[in-house]
Amino acid sequence: MADDELELLRQKRMQELAQQQAAVTQEEEAKKEFESKKQAILRQILTPEARERLNSLRMAKPEFVEQVELQLIALAQSGRLKSSISDEQLKSILLQLTPKKREINITRR
Hints:
Layout: H1 2-45, H2 48-60, H3 62-77, H4 87-97
Helix pairs in contact: 1-3, 2-3, 2-4
């Protein structure tokens, strides 16, 4: 009897693991699909130089670049972008979106 119960527990655990693996696989596929769609849209709305700038900036600030990309895609999908964004336009956008740094001065008395 103990062997039968143990075998049932093993089978149940194997099914749970298989379901978890399937869920992880689906999630990875959804992420890949989203990323490919995002890149296709960015290819349409950015010039090659601007895309290159974002890719190089991604090395230093991946979260910031992700936010910028999502904002640009939202603008494009809402119809607020009339033409593709050049490198100079992207520079000015990045400067506007970059948080201002506080300057701290310590004076000794």
